[in-house]
Amino acid sequence: MIRRISLLAVLAGFAVAANALPAGAMVTIGSNLGRQPDVSSQYDPRPTFANFALAPDRQAPGGLASPVNGTVVRWRIRVGSSTEVTNFRVIAPLAITYFAGVGTSPQVTPPSNATTAYDVQLPIQVGDYIGLDCCDPGDAAFFVSDPSGASIRSEWQPALGAGTPASSNPYEIALNADIEPTSTFTIGIVHNWKKGRASLTVVA
Q1: 0.70 exceeded by the pTM?
Q2: Which sequence spans correspond to the domains of the chain?
Q3: Angle at 18 between CA 15 and CA 21, to 5 degrees
Q4: Measured in whole angstroms, how far is the alpha carbon of residue 187 from the centre of its chain?
Q5: Tell me: the pLDDT tens digits for 143-155?
Q6: In angstroms, rounded to a whole number, what is the distance separating the alpha carbons of residues 73 and 119?
Q7: Torsions phi, psi of 5, nearest 5?
Q8: What is the side-by-side order of every strand in the sheet holding 140-145?
Q9: What angle do CA 121, 82, 141 make, to 5 degrees?
Q10: Cβ of 127: how many Cβ atoms within 10 Å?
Q11: Side-chain half-sphere exposure of 129, counting CA atoms within 13 A
Q12: CA distance 26 to 7
């Protein structure tokens, strides 16, 4: 009886804490957009690009892959001297070297020599990456060179989803995204009545 009461008390405490928790703070992933793009690209057919590696001093505070489940509410792109039609993508890892495009924004043409933000509503899961589609038919300066080789831009041509393998080269994509974390969570209980122990799992 004491064990049962104790477990109920713990659960009650978690329930109170759950109700008291505010919505999670916004998380930004991708590039910190600290450098002016100095590399333009033109492809046919139009590929998908993503950064799976980026020098630490070039990353946004949340890193490159989403650390939370939530919703992408805004994405930003910094453009150099040339621009072209592009769209934002959420990219999910499926297995080693295999990925899938799981969400896409409407197409936009961001202005040259500027950083522009676009509102969006796209679900994202822990471990997902962000990327974009471009640059066809014209030239677009959305990329930053990195002679150190610490930045790796992966690309799929044609666009991700066609089952083509990725190739890589040493560039930063001047792209980031704001994620609003999921504000609700699930509590799962596994109780071992024989040993008198309970385990509590919290999934954000």
Answers
A1: yes
A2: 24-203
A3: 150
A4: 25
A5: 999 988 899 999 9
A6: 6
A7: -65, -40
A8: 39-41, 140-145, 171-173
A9: 65
A10: 11
A11: 25
A12: 33
